[in-house]
Amino acid sequence: MTHTARRLLTGPLLLAAVCAGFAAPQAASAAATGVATTVKVTGSLKVRSAPSLTARAVGTLRGGDKVTVVCQTAGQKVRGSVRTSAAWDRLGTGRYVSHAYVTTSKKIPVCAAESGAAVPTKAKPATAANAKRFVVGTVKSLEGKVNLRSAPATSGAVLASVNTGRKINLLCKVAGESVTGTVRTTKQWDRTSVGTYISHGFIYSGPLPVCAGAVVSDEPAVTLTPEQFIRASVAGAQRGWREFGVPPSVTIAQAILESGWGRSGLAAVDRNYFGIKCFNGAFGRYADGCHVYNTQECTKAGTCFATTGAFRTYPTMAHSFRDHGSFLRVNPRYAGAFDYTTDANKFIFKIWKAGYATDPNYVTKVTGIMAAWNLYQYDTWK
Description:
This protein is an alpha+beta fold. The chain is about 25% helix and about 30% strand. The chain folds into 3 domains: about 10-105, SH3 Domains (SH3 type barrels); about 130-205, SH3 Domains (SH3 type barrels, Roll), CATH 2.30.30; about 225-380, Lysozyme (Orthogonal Bundle).
């Protein structure tokens, strides 16, 4: 499991930074109370600042690395190489790795409730000090209720639900999966006073502070309109044409189709706008890792089935667009398409025929988008 990150540590410095405070020779006290675990991944595993795939990446571990876990807490559900689990393991540095990718022969203790996230067993008398800790929000849902989750994503475990119109105490905000709610479309998720998360797309409230240790999205919280998405895509698509020869109209249309105008989990979390996969753990020059998802594949006969796939993750949208062109150019199976670099329709047909996508209607969908949005105008050879 590897995900979007601003900076990565590698080699000996990486392990020193990630493991500082729980290596046996340097932290006997932590080792005495912690549980020894082994990382089981073919590539690398991101260490995060909170128990969620959307939390800031603060380091990387490799398959076979030995780490000591202090305790375990609930977080975003992850399908990993060992198991599917909503458990996250806290390391001696106060950082987290998904339990879906580690093995141990011992039981890991549950983390004590964190400050500001404890689940109350009895109602406490209201005080001025308590009141200042929270921002009161009002739930608004046309469906009648909204789920409270273990992480800022729809893949997070549902821990409870609240009815529309209910008042709810909110602590702070984090960036997570983009959600279209009754109130707005946004990537903001609000952490409640009991440590659960609710999409801000269903909340009316005053401003919230950013949660400690949370990543702040560098992209607009509100989903781009189709026109805005196209404008944001043109520069990268045309650069892909200049560097690799992929028609810009093809690049933009594929991004629209495969990311749902940037709303898919791949695009929102991993900035992967083209559904490009990892192969045997390799993610190429422009990506920064791989992320395993549940997905659906279709045969050319139209029969679809559930499966899993490892998809590339990128630090920026621009990296994703450049990798799209590079991916097609360096793969011999798509060589025939580059006889048609000035014929967008034939180009997309050739890469589909070579096995780029299994959807039998893929070409029709892509060329339909190209025509409907006049994407041919961005083909720079004209």
